[in-house]
Hints:
Blueprint: H1 3-20, H2 24-35, H3 40-47, H4 53-92, H5 111-124, E1 129-130, E2 136-138, H6 139-142, E3 162-163, E4 172-174, H7 180-188, E5 193-202, E6 214-224, H8 229-244, E7 249-257, E8 260-270, E9 273-283, H9 285-290, E10 299-306, H10 307-315, H11 328-331
Parallel strand pairs: 1-5
Antiparallel strand pairs: 2-4, 3-4, 5-6, 6-10, 7-8, 8-9, 9-10
Amino acid sequence: MExxxxxxxxxxxxxxxxxxxxxxxxxxxxxxxxTGKRSPIAAGRRSLxxxxxxQRRDLGRAINDVxxxxxxxxxxxxxxxxxxxxxxxxxxxxxxxTLPGRIPLRGTTxxxxxxxxxxxxxxxxxxxxxxTGPEVETEFYNFTALNFPVAHPTRLESxxxxxxxxxxxxxVLLRTHTSPMxxxxxxxHDPPVYLVVPGRVFRxxxxxxxxxxxxxxxxxxAVDTDITFGDLKGVLDHFAREFLGPxxxxxxxxxxxPFTEPSAEMHVYANGRWMELLGCGMVHxxxxxxxxxxxxxxxxxxxxxxxxxxxxxxHGITDLRHLFDPDRRILEQYR
Length: 335
């Protein structure tokens, strides 16, 4: 078949095939067949060298006209197909913004930490400073500086968790209360001191409904001139009412602690019964002497409370172990 016949056949048939291409990929395959390197147009250009001299110009012009015409149709169809495919892609990726969003699970602090934060906030509102100390302590700060006698039973390994650490002649242990920060803070600061110390403490207690070898305590200390037991009662009564509600009643019962004299337990009447809430007392002169304070010039009071017990009182929890249960059904009750 002559080149002119092939070109004319291509000019007639190709536009319909181009118009019928349904995708850009189909169109590109068709373009390669019609105007590509193996197309009739490419073959016609290669045959120009063997064509008679007098026909070569007209034949080249005819081939170029057909190529320009068909390439224009291909480009026009490509624009249409690309627009269609872009619209289809947008439709498939469409997001219905009227649907409700996916709300992630919200985390929260543990119940004990919530209670500790609230207690600390109450005392901070009264002008107290917050301090924290090491959980690994020496016997001096944990016992000696707080006027615990050498033979006191809490120094025994049956009560306290000692650590095999270094060659220090002083015993190294896991602190049994946050009270060591009383001594540490007073060594570094001159009076007046108004301090509250939250933290984790450790004792050799069995795990049962009311005991755990790891629990949480908040220690408080106030040192100034002319502080009295009446000040202690006023501060702790205010705390109890802020924490448990304005309708509770408090009372102070004589007790004994090595680092306070006189000492007392504060009980509260709530939910139809009396319960012990915390221990307290006036700072013993021996504690002031151990940290370099003159007991003739300053007085003060100290108190300590278990955050775990207070959490149980606040939320009506009857078993301490529930506070450490990783079951989300329990923990989510206190969000």
